[in-house]
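Lay summary. Proteins are chains of building blocks that fold into shapes, and those shapes determine what they do. In this project we predict the shape from the chain. Here is one chain we studied, written as its sequence of building blocks.
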Amino acid sequence: KESDRGALQEMNQLELFKPITKWARRVTDPERVGEYVAAAVRQAFAGLPGPVYLELPVDVLLAPVKPEDLQRSHALFSSEPAAAGSDGIMIAASLLNGAHAPVILGGSNLWWDEAQEYLEKFAGKLNAPVFLNGLARGCLAPTHPLFFQHARKEAFKKADAIVVIGTPLDFRLGYGRFNPKAKVVLIDKTDALFGQNRPHDVGLAGSLDIVLQQLTEAIHLVALRQEWFDHLRHVEQSEQAGLEKMMQSEALPMNHYRLLAEVVKAVDENTIVVGDGGDFVACASRVVPVLQPGNWMDPGPFGCLGVGPSFALAAKLAKPDHKVLILHGDGSFGLNGMEFDTAIRHHLPIVSLIGNDAGWGQIRNPQVALLGEQASVATDLAETHYEKVVEALGGYGEWVEKPEDVVPALRRAFSAGVAACINVRIDPTTLRGTVDLMRGLSI
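And here is the predicted shape, written in a compact code that computers can read:
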């Protein structure tokens, strides 16, 4: 009733949100609030999961409604899991049966469809190396013989068949710029992004658990790909050796990987890790193991810094028996660190570990590499003691400078019973000289 009258904070929010959501609506009838809420949930989870926007004007929220006037039937989920077409399954199976060097890349929709069991069976029968990104991390155990992490660029360069499951060919996969001769099989919840950035040989749309079951039944069992696996393991071990050198360094301040080597010791199957940062989180994605599906959260392809505390609060509410650890850059903590007030008020004992290099490292390092030290404009920060901020809010905090102090500090933080911050000084020059802003994110 107050539209176009100059009400408090009046603006056309509906049109603002339409371009950046899957579905956006305004409720104008108080009797239909339940109907619209149910529709919003359905739209958020239908097809490719994504955000929706539902606007409830104040006068609609406050309007009295008789119980007998409410509409009662509001199904949150209305569709059955879908299978892929049999013709597509047969084409994909024929293609994969002829492959000598296949590779599998699994993305976030594997987790949404709870398809980890079917991924393992499919990969085992095809006998193909598996790489994971996004929410799919943890869908195959890091100790599984088919799991690979550091040889992805080489695998995509040399593979003759590439199966991409539950993720688009966006910048994280180099826009599909891998072996141009490779056969490409795309599997996802819908075909909306099939063909984006690169032609594919076959696309299979449906519930990922069902589609993987179909494809597993259709392909031949392959017992051995010795040459292919030996080659990738050699690359994997070579990359790991380079990381190990940094992870074992005793130089101070600690480099990013040396700190993360200590963090690894504190991560178990009941630890949810939230990545909220630039360089520090890119490094973490290479060395911190994800031991269970759903135990890794990050901003995804938008890379929105500052989401860590919000993600962590939700994770702790959803899984109160799990430890929740945010891996923060100092820049990202500065964006949303006051949400630790929320954590403390609501008795949610999340823990932040800050890799503090006193700067926006992922931006500063390319600037310095290209233009010299004088070019680090607006990317140098103070070595801020954010742990004292958390302490002042009623939480627990420690400042750490030595590797041997990291794990004890984390143990004290997790046992404190309140939200905590472990702020660790790291070397700002660890990745100096690098000009790739997408380091650690793309192939």
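What the prediction tells us: The two ends are 53 Å apart (CA to CA).
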